[in-house]
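TASK: fixed-backbone design
INPUT:
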């Protein structure tokens, strides 16, 4: 009993300590009235969550305080957001209503809480719960963008405290974070938040890889610090001589960005040449900051040789998320490339806190760049019939893409994602301009609508009122706005044609004395395996469905019936499949009798015994077993969490799996013989194929072999590494 009292007292002390830390985090913004409201929100949240605990066993109130502190300290939001963050779970989890929130804290806080309250509706199981949730979350942008920022703060704290969750939950949440939240943070210019979300996602998805990169970064920390101190000395002296007030710091790249580079360039950690960057932040006025940044660039390149291909000028043309900085990569005296970032204090604040650094909620203003972005989002959300997953794909296209800068005939600058086409540009100017586009001139020459644009192009659009969007236009565009508008126009056209088809069907039913009832329409949809009535009418109008064949079918009291055999082809619902597979154990054991449930090893990642895996329930192919680090895992776990089943290998069964190994190095005499001798000698390895390619003294090889499990594969890889001349050995991921 005494122990419980001591614990409760300690918790009370810790809660007050965390609350004081929150007040300290938002001290610059705070008036006496703000402090009173924050205290009131804290008390309401504390009382509402008093009997609740997190999975870790901690008092639940720790979470809203932490989210509020991230919103204030790391995103730079004001007192209204802090109040909303403290209350963000109250309406969903407690007896408090939105009306109570409005009465106590006003309309602004109510609007934010309303947007933050998690959506409890049951969605159509054929689409993704997570994608639909995300889409609805973005709809709240039209009310108040602070909803998204607090949501990101909420996600960051959940990721920081993910250790207490089950492994399958960790994978799902980490996948969602990489798939949706990190790109969203990036698009809003919240770089430090985005980097931490990515690092934490890697930590839980690939713990061994994350640990290895962290250890290597830590191991080289002292050497890196000495190198940076020596490297920045001549630049520091030059800046001091010119009378600049500045601060300089060297920072390593995030674990996730290093891992990404290793994956994309197919290199090992030691070959990632720009492991760290040096940032120079200068104090200057708004009028002089651009000139001063170029002056600093000149001093840097006076001391070190720059790589001309690595100059990035985000000052003259800031990125769409507001980011401004001058980047260059220079060669150090020790032969290492070093990335240098040059920016003013104002630019640095924008880089760290994104658009939030511009927002002036007290005056009811928002930054123009933010407004442009929000308008793009609203246009994407205009089509309520759109598939949620299509929306996410389109949205992510624009989140991830780098930008190009192009010009209108009048010389106005427009920024578009990389790989954007002339048709994308037309829709970017105006939806109607895009819909009526019949031709495009790029740099005064007529080009196809599908022409990919490059930075600096000047584009003129030729329109005609007789033009309508075509289905193949979807192959010519990459921007979400263009895709959304084309799809909407095609749907409208389909509806017009479908209305003719409905009339044709009505006449046919009348001649057969069949009533125009919904059950008769459904029977037809099932018979022809068509997903909707509109599609059915459309196919009838196009002549794809022969209604003459209806004469031979049974008609009783105005109702149409078909033989049962045709209806049995309809696949079972995903829900029933998952239920059958999960049973009571909630886990799929690979190698056991699965009661006639089919499973296959996914060819995209070739899992083998010992790999960390999960099962994905498909409609027609049973279960596909994927590796947790499969290239498709993030999308599957994020968008189809309800179709994921936990899976493990049955230990005692000897199974054979096909696995690939890629290796490379310096070509030596007799190397091929050594390698071909090793593989058959490795016990139990049955080689399927082997290939070598040698060019200018460098060789690359690939072997496909049957192994029992990951240990077996690792043993073979270790033997290959010992062969003289072999520099790299890695498993082929897909």
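OUTPUT:
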């Amino acid at each position: 009993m005494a122990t419980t009292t001591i614990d409760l007292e300690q918790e009370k002390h810790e809660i007050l300590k965390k609350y004081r830390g929150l007040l300290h985090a938002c001290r610059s913004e705070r008036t006496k009235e703000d402090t009173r409201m924050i205290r009131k929100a804290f008390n309401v949240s504390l009382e509402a969550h008093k009997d609740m605990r997190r999975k870790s066993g901690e008092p639940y109130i720790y979470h809203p305080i932490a989210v509020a502190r991230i919103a204030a300290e790391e995103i730079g939001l004001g007192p209204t957001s802090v109040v909303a963050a403290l209350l963000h779970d109250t309406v969903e989890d407690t007896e408090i209503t939105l009306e109570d929130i409005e009465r106590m804290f006003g309309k602004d806080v109510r609007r934010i809480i309303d947007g933050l309250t998690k959506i409890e509706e049951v969605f159509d199981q054929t689409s993704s719960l997570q994608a639909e949730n995300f889409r609805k979350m973005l709809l709240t942008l039209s009310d108040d963008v602070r909803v998204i920022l607090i949501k990101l703060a909420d996600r960051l704290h959940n990721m920081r405290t993910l250790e207490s969750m089950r492994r399958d939950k960790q994978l799902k949440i980490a996948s969602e974070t990489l798939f949706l939240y990190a790109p969203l943070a990036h698009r809003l210019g919240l770089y430090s938040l985005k980097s931490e979300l990515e690092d934490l996602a890697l930590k839980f998805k690939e713990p061994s890889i994350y640990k290895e990169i962290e250890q290597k970064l830590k191991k080289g920390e002292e050497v890196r610090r000495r190198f940076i101190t020596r490297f920045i000395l001549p630049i520091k002296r030059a800046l001091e001589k010119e009378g600049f007030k500045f601060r300089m710091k060297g920072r390593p790249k995030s674990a996730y960005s290093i891992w990404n580079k290793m994956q994309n360039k197919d290199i090992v950690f030691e070959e990632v040449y720009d492991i760290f960057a040096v940032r120079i932040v200068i104090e200057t006025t708004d009028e002089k900051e651009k000139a001063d940044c170029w002056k600093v660039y000149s001093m840097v390149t006076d001391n070190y040789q720059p790589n001309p291909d690595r100059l990035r000028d985000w000052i003259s043309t800031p990125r769409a998320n507001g980011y401004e900085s001058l980047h260059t990569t220079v060669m150090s005296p020790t032969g290492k490339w070093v990335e240098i970032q040059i920016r003013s204090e104002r630019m640095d604040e924008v880089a760290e806190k994104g658009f939030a650094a511009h927002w002036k909620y007290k005056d009811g203003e928002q930054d123009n760049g933010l407004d442009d972005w929000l308008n793009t989002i609203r246009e994407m959300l205009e089509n309520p019939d759109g598939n949620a997953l299509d929306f996410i794909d389109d949205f992510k296209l624009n989140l991830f893409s780098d930008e190009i800068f192009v010009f209108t005939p009048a010389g106005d600058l427009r920024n578009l994602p990389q790989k954007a086409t002339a048709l994308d540009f037309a829709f970017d100017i105006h939806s109607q301009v895009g819909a009526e586009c019949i031709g495009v001139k790029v740099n005064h020459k007529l080009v196809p609508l599908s022409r990919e644009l490059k930075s600096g192009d000047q584009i003129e659009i030729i329109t005609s009122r007789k033009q309508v969007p075509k289905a193949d236009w979807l192959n010519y565009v990459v921007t979400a706005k263009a895709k959304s508008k084309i799809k909407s126009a095609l749907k409208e056209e389909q509806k017009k044609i479908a209305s003719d088809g409905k009339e044709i069907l009505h006449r046919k039913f009348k001649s057969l004395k069949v009533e125009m009832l919904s059950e008769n329409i459904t029977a037809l949809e099932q018979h022809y395996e068509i997903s909707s009535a509109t599609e059915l009418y459309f196919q009838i109008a196009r002549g794809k469905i022969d209604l003459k064949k209806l004469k031979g079918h049974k008609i009783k009291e105005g109702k149409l019936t078909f033989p049962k055999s045709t209806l049995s082809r309809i696949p079972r619902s995903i829900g029933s499949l998952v239920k059958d597979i999960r049973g009571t154990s909630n886990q799929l054991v690979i190698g056991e009798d699965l009661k006639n449930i089919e499973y296959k090893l996914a060819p995209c990642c070739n899992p083998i015994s010992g790999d960390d895996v999960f099962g994905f329930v498909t409609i027609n192919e049973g279960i596909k077993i994927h590796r947790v680090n499969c290239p498709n895992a993030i999308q599957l776990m994020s968008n189809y969490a309800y179709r994921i089943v936990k899976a493990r290998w049955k230990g005692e069964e000897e199974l054979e799996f096909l696995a690939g190994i890629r290796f490379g190095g310096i070509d030596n005499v007799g190397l091929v013989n050594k390698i071909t001798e090793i593989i058959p000698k490795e016990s139990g390895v049955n080689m399927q194929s082997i290939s070598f390619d040698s060019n200018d003294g460098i060789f690359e090889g690939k072997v496909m072999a049957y192994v029992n499990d990951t240990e077996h594969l690792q043993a073979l890889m270790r033997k290959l590494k010992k062969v003289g001349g072999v520099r790299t050995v890695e498993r082929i991921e897909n």
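COMMENT: Residues 605 and 733 are 6 Å apart (CA to CA).
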